[in-house]
Amino acid sequence: MDQCAHCRQKEGCEKDCGGCCGCQGGKEITLSLDRRQARLLLEFSQVPFLPLCQAAGAEGETFPLFLPEGAGGAEIPFTAQTLRELSDMGLISLDTALPLDGYDYAEYNVLEPSLSIQERGSMALTPLGQVAMEQIEIL
User: Fold this and answer.
1) Over the stretch 58-85, which tens digit does the pLDDT of each residue have?
2) CA-to-CA distance for 122 and 120, rounded, in angstroms?
3) Are 67 and 108 in contact (CB under 8 A)?
């Protein structure tokens, strides 16, 4: 297995970019997060692993589904978009093949009749996400 040339971590470093292990390849990076992204990322400060479902809408489109405390059905499209954005930035991992042990996904089953839950899984911060979360400045 390859290792990061900067921090020598061997966990999945393939490109020597430092993004997979969180060291940023010895470079300082700047991420810009909007309020939705920062708020969702901060959910991980309380619990390291959060529930996630893969849902399908009425037209068959699939999307990641997470229900932050106090979120309603109207927020589902925004939350799905934010999850994708954070995942694309390498800050969180979305794993629909790894459900949380002992978590009751019942709240996801009663959301809306037009939604169907395809898979139950979990999400977690990546090493880069951990670094980002520790440096979030709340304005």
Assistant:
1) 888 999 999 877 666 667 777 899 999 9
2) 7
3) yes
